[in-house]
């Protein structure tokens, strides 16, 4: 999530501002982008998901309209590892709130897949774009995320600034964007 493409190209790094990833992704064919995005979720979810890509102008382009409530995005080519993602409609609302520096919708729990893994991100700062001495950079493998919902839900999981990423933990603890990261094999 070095450039935050990960939460929406992931997550769409700088809501509305084109990124190098968007420019590079624009050079990939739609078929390549769709294939990349489908790696984020189980085949049964990905085959029916809407596939979108962030364009060079910062807009989102639908590559394929889906028939379920999931939206998948391809890998960000500028991050160090694979990071395609696929999210349920509630998670998409949460991600849009995060990108827009707005309060996530109340009472909505969202689910995200990142089965190809994730790239580097700060575990404490939702808007960090690079490691610093104090922002506790982490790297994740294949995982799912639970976002939104009641803050008390997160109290039963570790919230360490430097988490053990081999077990479920809370990322961005204490912020409106805290969410559960749960590794999968």
Per the principal axes of the C-alpha atoms, what is the gross shape?
globular
Q: Give the terminus-to-terminus CA distance.
A: 20 Å
SSE ordering: HEHHHEEEEHEEEEEE
Number of helices: 5
Percent strand: 15-25%
Work out the number of β strands: 11
**Order of strands across the widest beta sheet?**
3-2-4-5-6-9-11-10
Whole-number mean pLDDT? 84
Oligomerization category of the chains in this entry = single chain
Rg is 15 Å
The helical percent reads 10-25%
Report the major sheet. Answer: 8 strands, mixed
Which class of secondary structure composition applies to the elements? alpha+beta
| Unreliable residue stretches | 1-20
Note down, in words, how this protein is organized.
With 185 residues, the chain is α+β, with helices and mostly antiparallel strands. Helices cover 19% and strands 24% of the residues. The protein contains 5 helices and 11 strands, in the order αβαααββββαββββββ. The chain has helices at residues 6-9, 20-27, 30-38, 43-46, 89-99; strands at 10-12, 50-54, 60-64, 70-73, 85-88, 109-114, 121-122, 137-138, 143-148, 169-171, 179-183. The strands form 2 sheets. An 8-stranded mixed β-sheet has the order 3-2-4-5-6-9-11-10. Strands 7-8 form a two-stranded antiparallel ribbon. A hairpin with a 7-residue loop joins β10 and β11 (179-183). The longest helix has 11 residues, at 89-99. The protein is globular and about 40 Å long.
């Amino acid at each position: 999530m070095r450039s935050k493409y990960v939460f929406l190209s992931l997550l769409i790094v700088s809501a509305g501002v084109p990124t190098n990833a968007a420019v590079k992704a624009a050079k990939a064919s739609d078929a390549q982008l769709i294939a990349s995005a489908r790696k984020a979720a189980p085949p049964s979810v990905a085959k029916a998901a809407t596939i979108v890509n962030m364009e060079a102008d910062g807009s989102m382009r639908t590559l394929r309209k889906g028939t379920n409530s999931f939206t998948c995005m391809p890998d960000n080519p500028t991050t160090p590892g694979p990071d395609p993602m696929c999210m349920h409609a509630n998670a998409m609302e949460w991600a849009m709130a995060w990108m827009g520096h707005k309060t996530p919708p109340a009472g909505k729990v969202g689910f995200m897949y990142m089965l190809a893994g994730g790239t580097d991100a700060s575990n404490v700062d939702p808007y960090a774009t690079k490691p610093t001495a104090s922002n506790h950079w982490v790297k994740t493998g294949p995982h799912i995320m639970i976002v939104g919902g009641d803050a008390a839900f997160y109290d039963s999981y570790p919230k360490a600034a430097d988490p053990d990423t081999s077990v479920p933990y809370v990322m961005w603890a204490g912020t409106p964007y805290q969410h559960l990261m749960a590794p999968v094999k």
